[in-house]
Structure formats: structure tokens, C-alpha cells
Design a protein that fits this description.
Four copies of one chain form a homotetramer. Chain A has 383 residues and is an alpha+beta fold. The first copy, chain A, has one domain: Chorismate synthase, AroC fold (4-Layer Sandwich), CATH 3.60.150. Helix content of chain A is 25%, strand content 20%. In chain A, the strands form six sheets. In chain A, strands 1-2-3-7-4 form a five-stranded antiparallel sheet, with helices on one face. Chain A has a five-stranded antiparallel sheet with strand order 9-8-10-16-11. A two-stranded antiparallel sheet of chain A has the order 5-6. In chain A, α1 (38-48) packs across α3 (131-146), α1 (38-48) runs antiparallel to α8 and α6 (230-239) packs antiparallel against α8. The radius of gyration of chain A is 22 Å and the shape is globular. Chains A and B meet through β1, α2, α6, β11 and α7 of A and β1, α2, α6, β11 and α7 of B. β11 of chain A pairs antiparallel with β11 of chain B.
Chain lengths: 383, 383, 383, 383
């Protein structure tokens, strides 16, 4: 039971049901003295906010965070940073019908099978609204990481069956991902996907998508080499997102079809590698260990569970939003088959809004690993 | 630092370098009173053992486990079960050249970048040998789960670019996976893959593969609904395996390209569903919650992070073994480019041997989650 | 860093500075279906509230809790229960002088030595106000334990140098501890101590005290036998209270001066023992294990780290409140010796107000240990 | 269940029953590159060894440790350090009678009440032999701490009712504690106590005692300010020892009887304080925070849960060894009252042998806290 606390040193505890009074997060273990403002948090919440104006959702929440503790005179105190976000837009009446019916593709029945009861209004704790707390906490982690030059950027790499060209392909433009509500880094594809999503909405259907994430500035040496591998921690974080069905790093599943002679990333002297963090980055290498880069990044920035200094790259797959406007067969609380047509406001495709959550969870993992590696995996008398 | 302890209630701590005196595991939190024999552990170790006679590897280890504690008169005591496996076959001389060179695709440099030194003999702790401890511990978890009728079965679903037909396809035969060293559940494909691997070995090259895993008998209600989702925990476990590059559950990445109307698993009354655990399974449902099944299993047995009672199904992608017999460019400890040709005994494709490790890690995750939902210290079949 | 999360299964995360916007707690892992009201929480907060009318403190806070999540239609959901308590009475001006001076006996300097900065207003996070979150969380744990017939009761057993007769001694009356603000279970001693405390206040001085705690209804079998001993967990919890300087169980320190022949608690058949939980208590014994009691309780209810079924009994020592009204020598932020006279509202003796916090922390430990030995996500009285 | 893993970053997992094949420990999270030899571990095991020649015990074990992993070419690898110690001296026949009887003052019945079965030979996992693993692990921690100038020293401060003069009193001599088997730092008292213990042995009785521990060289800033207080962590560690019944820090229980004006430790400029770590110690203070010391150490080196830079001082109370040679009444497995006379080799007073275990557990706590504080509670761009 439980499972609402995440991390070892830099930890977050989230809380809140979709239609309860508030959701939020408590960040514990953030170092003291870090400059942090309310706006740092509010900005990230706006990025994930429903009703961003785009075609993927229609719900609206103000999502104004309130910080209850942990910041004093503009800096973190080293104490828990409690952040709450009031729920203001819940129209519970939309959900009355769901009290006695289990929605296909949702956690309604599994929740009851586990807990015996559920808050049926909007999915309760299984709602996408739950991620507001993650994003608020991730905003703190992002500020922390940013101070070390670590940057996390996500984008929609596929949605509604339409693939988006990746970095290096023509038309790829990360800035674009921040300006269109679908978070698609390609102007033309963004329009194409928007049209497809609008068509699906009219049909009462929904669509899946993938979100890519790239982290630059990550020094080598992060991650533990056995169970706490960097990729294991990231995978856990991504699959903890409601609709995630898969993840891959670097060459990913295609590596399972390739050869070692093609896929091995060969070390090259530092400076020659594009994308690797420079040797003089904030975490100096232990004595006697040469700086180097890699000639390719099929590994996605991690070897043996430890960061290589190349960008960390991974992609997460999200299933179609299960709340669809078509009639579906299901089972009621009485155990009998019944028809169900879900009302209320729903996204067609979750991938665009998942991006900021992917970034937040990535930031939480990395902040935690950074604090576990800063002191020194490597013994030195004068830390 | 660390990261060699896994789990919350049913935990395992593994240890051991490839060419050190021994590797092993300490299982903590296994309920008392569980019948457990040395052979239960030895059998699983034989399944993962190198030199199983097949084409995928050539190293030989006896892998005889010794139990140092935790079992008394044929039953677990509730105390830590320490298991050691002596390393007997290490030929360190093969590795002298690696003292000063970083192998492409390996953790050699990342390890040094983190720790400042490494045991260069056979990869040390980053060797596949590390998984012996996992398998020994997983054997204990498997016995525990078996008592509840929970069964875990893996197979090679692709290797060296050759796809193996899945359950429901013609020729799929799980028993076959236990008899051929490639763990391919299809006689003809097994032969085909063996030939391809042999050809790659002659070329001094290697290949990737995927491993599928299916768990039956899992009751609904396992997994925590936010961070500790069942799929998140499994994903973490799988990506903690050395060469894993991705994982997907149920429809997985293909779900990212589909529609909600196709992919939603619709509830059906219990009894009608094939594959779902029967209503009278060991964990009874809370009062008022009807037993049900699902008409499809695109979710792979998990909704909202909680098991549905349908089989848990996932697939893990493994990259090609990075140790290849061809000449490669790399960088030495002196920071200079150099040629490297790796000697020693190496697998061509890791997927076949990864299967038992996939099962072991799955068992460890499930035993832990089961104990978070079930009673106690003292083992009883009917809690 | 961090350290604001407590527990393994039933966990609490607390937050809040003395003069920040609010303090509070997030309880995670409380089983679903437990009837819980706001008044259950408010009642415990009133018990610890400053300004209870008695002689030991003069600060006043309304301490009205708000529940933000985790309760639905009068029952717990199995999700995190977030509780906040607004700070309304902070008079920060009282603390301006403390910005640049380190109070003797306080954590002012150690805090800065660790974090580099502090919220100097009222001790910030090191204030006794921090315990409001613990008490709110403990209230939830108490309700949970109460359902199993587990009752926790504390009292002031010594204050300002005046010893209070214990259970079995003449005049001991637990009901009295709930009616007088000093929580002294003896009418006459309560008056005597009140007078002594008033005299100390006039002198600008303060006093220490001890708090005894007794838990009845605890079944045998709680606690892990090595590191997670029941008494180890309780000791950790008690020494996590600001002014605690020691703890002892059962015969405690006096046992260090006694003989085995005097102190061994000898087993007696169940039913003959006074104080032991009856054999038919909620947790049944494993097959073949006879019910029994103990003829004495020098162990204080725990043997080998595991509860015996006899009452759990321990005593915690609290040092005098370090904020005294007398002139003291200290060092300023400039490193120079200076005089300091502390203003503001302060307790003379913390022991009376510590009682409800002792109970809360005890409840949190026991709820956690109970869930490690009992089933489930879903609350049921008869597991 | 479980509870055999201790620590967060620097962790230890212990295992082993008294009369099983071996006991031992796995240390995880020890930084790489630390010079460490087998003798470092063997030396500490000899210090706790039964049969040290003195009057307190009569059992003999060679206690030769074997290191299975984690050390390479004389230095730690950053990987788990597995250490085993074979049990060679178990005479199980001595314990046949205990199969069906519950010894007074032991964990025999509580163990069965929890687990349903037990290894009755010598107490199994509840035996003092369990501490061999702790001492082996603690030896690693001690070497780590020693590199930072942190020194841990324990001594018997009372035994069999005879108080030993403390530091500053006449005749106190720490070197003496290492030379006499009772670990009494006072030649005359050592003889006096030895005689008393011999007399008790003849009477078939046993005695309690206290162990004092002092840590020097500890920098300010260790410990988390709320739940993870330095003293809370130490208290948990001490009460996890089998026969421990209480602990106190600094002035301890006597502080509960004193006044603030007497007990407050007043800050003084650094350099004037005797006993405080010098300002130039390995962990530099954050910018703007002056170095200081304290004019007294009633706090025992910890304020608000954070180390002050003054010596950490605490005392642990141990009850008399419950195995006595006199006839006792108890209850058998059949639930009936019976007589029991315990045979076998037993200590009269555990305090002398507890000393090295107290030191080991202290070292484990401090190594863990050091690694949590080195990276920086306090944010800095260039760690």
C-alpha cells in the first residue's frame, strides 16, 4: 500500500484526488540555499495545464500553486517544500453514472478489487489530474538541475499514428514544440496531427502517441550499476505514468534486431564528440581517468546503468485515452453486462500533455541520482 | 551509491564480481515456514548457466549454490537466506589487455568515471555473472509464488533478427522453450536462429533479441496506483538488466499507434474470460465488488498500475552482446585512440540466457508486491 | 538530507516552519475503508495545542486542520491523506534579535552549520510547532489501531524534579492526566508541579521532565527481530522529538543494575497473566504455538524486538526548554561573544505537551509494524 | 518482515543463525577506492569474540572472516562487500531441551508467536552470535570514518552493579579498557567487577551493565533535523541490540530533573572549546557561518538532531543475560508449566562484549549520515 512517495534522497510525496479539495506535493531533500520562486513552479504547471487552448483537451483549471513551507526569503531552507493546487473545475455531476459502472481501459475495477471502494468522480487518484503534484515537484528538481547546466526537453514524437521527424531530420524544431499545444516539434506535422485528432474527436474516438525526451548536460557517473541503474530508475518513473505502455532507450527495440558491430558506441577522445558534456563540466573525473566521448549514441547516454556524458535519450509510448465518446460494453457493480457512454471533458490524445510530466519525472530521478553521486562514489579525503 | 538492494518487504541484496571469490544473494523478508530446498535454487541456476550446451555461450561454471542461513529442517525461518555461488572458471589472463582499454558498448569507462577504479577482469560487477545472485534469489521468490498458484514463464521471442511466432500462432510451444538452449518456443525457428547465431559467431559479430514473459495466476489488486505501479516496478526490474534497452506491456508501442475503440479492454462477467484468474482464487475480493474478467488483454494484465487478474504480459528488448571478435576502435587509459580485439568466451546473443533472469526479477517484484497486500511473517496458504 | 518521511508501509511526510504559512502532514499507506472524520484529527491537535489553559505555555493557535485528500464519504480511500494546519499566531517581530545570534541549547547554529541559512523566526522547522504535523498524522494511526483494540496512553511521570507515582502506586489516576494541563495522573502532584513551574517561570528558568507511555491490546508478534526491533523503532521515534535525551523500556536503566534471576519475565499459561492480550485477540497464533502470558513485565512488552502481548511500556526523558528568560552568553553571527535575553512566549516544561506527540509517534510506529504483519490494502477488522 | 537491512546510503544486510553454517554481512554503498584489508575486519571480530580469555564468557569461536567480493587489489570497488564468518563451535546437543520450552527473558516464544517455528539451537537468529555480522560491517565503516579522523570508543561504564568512574574522574584510563576482557577503563574497578561476576557465575546468576560510547572528530552538520535526527538514528541502532533496555545522550535522564539555566550549552568562539572539532576540519562550514564551540556538552554532541562538533556521547543500558544456571519456571510447547534449567556456555554479563557491537552500530550510522551530508545539504555550484 501507499506508493505515493518517490525517491531516496531527493524525494517527493504527492497527494490529491481529481475532484477532492486539492492536489499537491511535498518535496523533501532539496538542498538549502537554492533560489526558488513561485513562478518557477507555476510556469511548469501552465505547461501541463488542461485547456491550454489546443485540440487535445477541453477541461480548464487555473492551477495556481501555493507554497506552504520550505522557502524563506527566496531560497530553499533544506526543509520540505509543500505545494498545493486547489481543484476548482470539478463537475462531479458528470460522473454520477460511473458510480456503478467500470469504464473499459480504466482502473475503476482494479481499484475496487484492491481497495474495496473508490472516488468515482473523474477517476479520483487515478486521474491525470494526479500528475499536477508531480509537475509541481518536478519544477523544483528542474531548477536544481538547471543550476548544474542539466537541461531536460521533451516533445511529441508521434500522435494519432503520425510520426514526427526526429532531431537531424528536416523540419525538426524544438522551439516549435513549446509553441503549439500538441508539443510537436515540426510545424507541418503539428497541423496534420491536429486535424487527425479533431477528426477522432468527432468520431468519439481517441489516439495514442509517443513522447521523446532528451537530457543534455548530464555528467558521466550518474546511476548505480546494478538495481539502481539510471535507465531502470527512468523506466520506473515513466511506467508510473497512467497511460504509459512502454519505454526504450537510445536505439531501443531496434537494437534487439541489430548487430554488435553496428550498435556498439565506440569511445573517442573528448572534444571530438558532439553532444558529450565537456571535460571541464561540474563533476570532475576521478584522478587518472581520461575524459572521452562516444562516436555514436545508440546506448542513449547510459552504459551499464551509468550515464556516459552523452545526452540521455528515451521514448515513452502512451496508449489512447480510454475515455471515448462511443458506446461500450462493460460490467456494472451488480456484475451484469451493461452499455456505457462516457460523458465529460476528455483528451483525445494524452501524449502532448504527458510531455511536461515526462520532464518532471525525469527531473525527479536525476536530482535524486545527482545527490547520491555528488558526495562521491569515489573516496576522497577532502570532499 | 550502492543500489545492490532491491525490494521493500521481500528484499534481495546481491554481491559478487565476475572473477572474485564468489557471487550470491541475501533474501530478506521471505515468510517463515515455506518449504524450500537447495535443489529449488540449484535448478534455476542451471537454467541460466553458461555452457548449457547450446550455441549462445561457451563459458562453463558449475554454479553450485550453498545456503548459509535462513533454512532449518527444510523450511524457511523468516530470517535472511544467504546463498553463495563460488566462481570457479575465471581465466583472468584473458582480460589483461582490458586493464588499460575501454571496451565499446561496455560499462568500462562509465564505471571508472564514477568510481575511479574497476575490476577489469570480465567486467567485474558489470558482468552478466552478476545475475547469478538474482537468479538464486528469484528461485526463492518463485517457490513462494508457486504456493499461490502464480506461474512465471519466459521465452525468446526474437533473436538475431528472426521473429518467433507468439502464443496463438502456429507452432508456438512453451515446452520447447525449456528444451532448446536458445529458449525458443518453436522447433523450426529455434533451428533457424541457431544457424544464424553460429554464422554471426564465425563473423566475430553478435546479435540482439527480445524476451517475452507471461505470468498467470496473479490475483487482481497487486501494485500501488501511483509511483509503485505494477508495471513501473517490473519496468525498473527489467531495465536493471545489463543489456536491456526497452520494455513494453501488452499492446505496448503498437498501442501508441492505435485507437481507444480498438484497444480498450472491456470488462466481461467472470467465467466468460479466458485467462483471468477464477473468482475463487486465493485473494478474495472486498465485499460488494463483483468478480469480472476482460474480453481482451491489450493492457497486458495491468490497469492503473494494479493487476487485473488477466495474465501479466511484457516483452524486454536486449541489445547485441557488445563483446565482439572484430577489431574495434576505442580509447585507452592514456586517453589515446587504439585498436581493440576482445578475446575470451562470450555469448553471441544474450536473450536466451536472459530469460531465467527476467523470470527471477519478475518473481522478486511480485513476491514483494504480494507481501504488501497479504499477511505476514508466518506463511499460510490461505490468508 | 531530507528526513521528513517516516515509516515503511504506513508512512508520514511532515512539513512546515513555525512561522511559515502552514504546517501539516501527508499520511500514505493507510488502508482504505477506515471510517475517519475531521474531528478525529482535530481532537488530537487540541490535546497538544499550546495555550491549553495550563501553566506550561502561553502561545495560542487555533490549530484547525483541513483535510485535502484521501477521505471520501467518511472513509479513507487508500490514497494519501493530506492535512494542513495554518499558522495564525506567529509574531515574527519577537524573533528579530535572533537573526544574528545563536540561542544556547537550540539548533540555531547546528542548522546553519548544515544548511548555511535558517528561518530564524521561532526556530523554523526546529520549533515544537513542527510536531503539529506528527500529531495530525498520529491521529489517523490511532483511529486505525483503535479498530484493533490497541490503545495508547501517555502521562507526565516527572516534571520540574517532582516524581509522580506510577501505576499501582497510591493516587495514580490516568483520567486525571486528561483533565489537568500538565497531564499529571495524580491530583496532588499536579498541583505541586504547577506551583513549581510557576516559580521557575518567575525566575526566568525552565525544567525537564519525563513522559511515560503504555500501550495495551498489542498482539504478540509485532516488530522485526534484528534491526527493525519494536523497541528500536520506538526509540528512534522518541529520540526524533526535539528535546528528548533518553528512553528506557520496562525496567530500563535499573535493569543494568539487577540480576537475571530477578528480572527474567517467566512465561505463565495464558489467562493467568494480568495485562496480556487474551488468546482470542485479533491476530491468531500460528498453529501449534500455545497462548501464554508473562508473570512480570520487566521487559516492557518486548522480547528480542518482538511484542510479547504484555503492555508495551517505556519512558522518555525531556531536557528543560532551552528558551529561558535569563541573560545568557552566546556567540553572534559575527563570531563574537554577546549577551542574549530571549523574548517571546515559551513553555517552561515541555513534558506535558510532549505527551500527545509521544502517543502520535508511537501510533505511527505501531500502525506501520501492524501493516507489515497484517493484510491489506483494504481494511477489515478480521484479517 | 525482514528487518535485516540497515541504512540508506551506506547499508548493511546481515544474516546467519547461531548454529547454522555461517553468519555474515553485505556492506553496500561504501565508496570505491578506500584501502581495506582482511585484517581490518578480523581485528574487530577478535574484539567482540567470545572466549577472549576473560571472565564474562566461555564459548570459543575462531571468527575468521572471508571476504567474497567488493575488494580488489587492496581497495574497495564501490560494489557490495560480502563477508562471511563460519560457525565452528556450535554444540547443538546442549539445546535439545529447548526445542519444547520457552526460556524466560528470551525471544523463544515471541519468535514462535510471529513466525510459527524457530531454530531453537542457541537462539538461532536471536543469538548474540548475530552481532558478528554487524561487527564485520562496522569494521568497514570504522575504516571509512577513520580516514576523516572520526574515532569511536566504547567502554564498560557499569557492570554487576559496580559503577566505573568516567572521563575526568580519577583512574579513568581508556587504554585499560582495551586490555582487560571486561573492557573496564579502570584497573581497580575491573578487578572488582571480575570478582563480582565470578561470584554470580557460581550462583548461576547473571548481571546487567551499561556501555558508554564517545565519538570524536565528528564535524558539525550530521543528522537530519526531523525524523532522521542523529540521536534518533543512534537510539534505533542501540535498541536494535538484543539486550538493550535504554539509552541516554549527554546529561540524559538527569536532564529531565534539571533546569535550563544549568543545562544549556552556551556557544563560545571556536578554539576556546575543548573537545570541539577544529574549524579547519574536513567539512568546511557554509559561507558566512562562524566556527564555534560550546562551553559544556550536556547535549552530548547533538542539538536539534544535528551534530554540534563536540564529542557525541551516549550510554546504553543492557539487562542481565537471561540464560541463568538456576532453576526457573516456564511454559512448554504443550502450554503447561514446567521447570527449566539452562545448560550450555553463557556470558554472565553482556556489557563487555557489547562494547565492540555498540561501536560497530555507531560506525554504521555515522558512515551513512556522513554520505548523506557530504554532498551538500547546502547548495553549491561546484561540489
Amino acid at each position: 500500500m501507499g506508493g505515493n512517495v518517490f525517491g531516496t534522497i531527493f524525494t517527493v510525496t504527492t497527494f490529491g484526488e481529481s475532484h477532492g479539495p486539492a492536489c499537491g506535493a511535498v518535496v523533501d531533500g532539496c538542498p538549502a540555499g537554492l533560489p526558488l520562486t513561485l513562478e518557477d513552479i507555476a510556469r511548469e504547471l501552465r505547461r501541463r495545464r488542461p485547456g491550454g487552448g489546443g485540440p487535445s483537451t477541453t477541461r480548464f483549471e487555473a492551477d495556481e500553486p501555493e507554497v506552504l513551507s520550505g522557502i524563506f526569503e527566496g531560497k530553499t531552507l533544506g526543509t520540505p517544500i509543500a505545494i498545493i493546487i486547489r481543484n476548482t473545475s470539478g463537475r462531479s455531476a458528470d460522473y454520477e453514472e460511473l458510480r456503478d459502472a467500470y469504464r473499459p481501459g480504466h482502473a475503476d475495477w482494479t481499484w475496487e478489487a484492491k481497495y474495496g471502494l473508490r472516488d468515482y468522480r473523474g477517476g479520483g487518484r487515478s486521474s491525470g489530474r494526479e500528475t499536477a503534484g508531480r509537475v509541481a515537484a518536478g519544477a523544483v528538481a528542474k531548477v536544481f538541475l538547471g543550476r548544474y547546466g542539466i537541461n531536460i526537453q521533451s516533445w511529441t514524437s508521434e500522435a494519432a499514428g503520425i510520426e514526427v521527424p526526429g532531431p537531424g531530420d528536416g523540419g525538426f524544431d524544438l522551439a516549435e514544440a513549446e509553441t503549439n499545444p500538441l508539443r510537436v516539434p515540426h510545424r507541418e506535422k503539428a497541423r496534420e496531427i491536429a486535424e487527425k485528432i479533431e477528426a477522432l474527436r468527432r468520431e468519439g474516438d481517441s489516439a495514442g502517441g509517443t513522447v521523446s525526451c532528451k537530457v543534455t548536460g548530464l555528467p558521466p557517473g550518474l546511476g548505480e550499476p546494478v538495481f539502481g541503474k539510471l535507465d531502470a530508475r527512468i523506466a520506473e518513473a515513466m511506467l508510473s505514468l497512467g497511460a504509459a505502455k512502454g519505454i526504450e532507450f537510445g536505439a531501443g527495440f531496434s537494437a534487439a534486431y541489430g548487430r554488435g558491430s553496428e550498435l556498439n558506441d565506440c569511445p573517442i577522445p573528448a572534444g571530438e564528440g558532439s553532444g558529450a558534456v565537456p571535460p571541464g563540466h561540474f563533476r570532475s573525473l576521478p584522478p587518472g581517468v581520461p575524459a572521452l566521448a562516444y562516436g555514436s549514441n545508440n546506448a542513449g547516454g547510459v552504459l551499464g546503468g551509468i550515464s556516459t556524458g552523452m545526452p540521455l535519450e528515451f521514448k515513452t509510448a502512451f496508449k489512447p485515452v480510454p475515455s471515448i465518446g462511443q458506446n461500450q460494453k462493460t460490467v456494472g457493480r451488480d456484475g451484469k453486462i451493461r452499455d456505457l457512454c462516457i460523458r465529460g471533458r476528455h483528451d483525445v490524445c494524452i501524449a502532448p500533455r504527458a510531455g511536461p510530466v515526462v520532464e518532471a519525472m525525469t527531473a525527479l530521478v536525476l536530482a535524486d541520482l545527482l545527490l547520491m553521486s555528488l558526495p562521491g562514489a569515489c573516496f576522497k579525503l577532502d570532499p
